[in-house]
Write a structure and sequence with these properties.
About 40% of the residues lie in helices and about 20% in strands. The protein has a 9-stranded mixed sheet with strand order 3-2-1-4-5-6-11-9-10, with helices on both faces. A two-stranded antiparallel ribbon has the order 7-8. Helix 1 runs parallel beside helix 13, helix 4 crosses helix 5 and helix 5 packs across helix 8.
């Protein structure tokens, strides 16, 4: 099985990604690392531990990471994920576990060094932890097999979810994303261009009725689905983070190609924009695999089947 570390800012779709990845039974989770993002770090930690407890997977250890972006002030997305980050779906669950003492960036470095060229990082939140790890250990990019990132917008100009051309994860710490993209690691960017083609609708959720996760998925996605109804007229939840995990499970879900990509960190109009040089106007070496097409229907079907187990 492929060795992975999942880096989250749990959030609704992060929670779904955790469930999907673990229930797939084809990934070896070395641990889960947390980062400030959708909600503050203390909420992220609590949500992650609660999801694992609900699943009966307290064997998966959680490593707390960066509480703030590298440079900018932190921002959160309560309007999408609810006041606690997971739609208050686990309010009645008394937390029984704690995060590990080791800092997330150090855990990433230690794991990559131990499993050279075997470890895949699945990053579904801001990239602060990985940027810190790369700064501390310059060899890290050579030790990793690959880095799969949920973030960015490359071809659908004006269809961002934070600024017209910016996606939240990259916007939340664009300086960190710039470090990661230029680190020399093998990076794949699973962007809004493809994740917005993977909506888990209320009809999909009803297919989970009678299964272990039905109540959680329905309740946790409530705020997210209301947001999607107002914004896109869809009673559903875009599976941004699960698709990123899904690509590690099955490469056939996405078509990718490598281009030169950089991140805007100066302009207030475009902070966090991921700029892809499709026509090689800059003449620079490609550094990021971007997603050109997605089998959205096939992926959502696989997600529902996997979670139904």
């Amino acid at each position: 099985m492929k060795k992975v570390i999942l880096d989250v800012d749990t959030g609704v779709d992060d929670a779904l990604a955790i469930i999907y990845g673990l229930e797939s039974e084809v990934l070896e989770f070395l641990g889960i690392t947390t980062v400030n993002g959708n909600v503050p770090l203390e909420m992220v930690n609590r949500n992650t531990l609660k999801v694992l407890q609900m699943m009966g997977r307290k064997d998966i250890k959680v490593y707390s990471g960066a509480p703030n972006p590298l440079v900018r002030e932190r921002e959160h997305e309560y309007s999408v994920h609810g006041t606690d980050g997971i739609g208050n779906a686990l309010d009645n669950l008394a937390l029984e576990d704690e995060v590990q003492d080791q800092f997330a960036a150090d855990f990433i470095i230690e794991s990559a060094k131990k499993h050279k060229n075997e470890l895949t990082l699945i990053m579904v939140g801001p990239l602060t932890n990985l940027a810190l790890a790369l700064k501390k250990e310059p060899m890290l990019s050579e030790w990793l097999d690959e880095v799969i990132v949920m973030g960015g917008l490359v071809s659908q100009a004006g269809k961002g979810n934070k600024l017209p051309n910016s996606e939240f994860n990259i916007y939340a710490d664009a300086e960190a994303a710039k470090i990661v993209f230029h680190s020399g690691a093998e990076v794949t960017l699973v962007s809004l261009d493809v994740t917005h083609q993977t909506f888990l609708t209320i009809d999909h959720i009803e297919k989970l009725k009678g299964t272990k996760y039905y109540e959680f998925v329905k309740n946790a996605t409530g705020v997210f689905r209301k947001f999607s109804m107002q914004r896109y007229n869809i009673d559903g939840c875009a599976l941004h983070d699960p698709l990123t995990v899904g690509y590690v499970i099955n490469r056939d879900f996405l078509e990718t190609r490598k281009y030169y990509v950089d991140v805007e960190t100066v302009s207030p109009l475009g902070y966090g924009q991921t700029i892809c040089d499709f026509r090689n106007l800059w003449g620079k070496e490609p550094n990021v695999n971007i997603c050109l097409n997605v089998d959205g229907e096939g992926f959502v079907e696989h997600f529902v089947d996997t979670v139904s187990k």
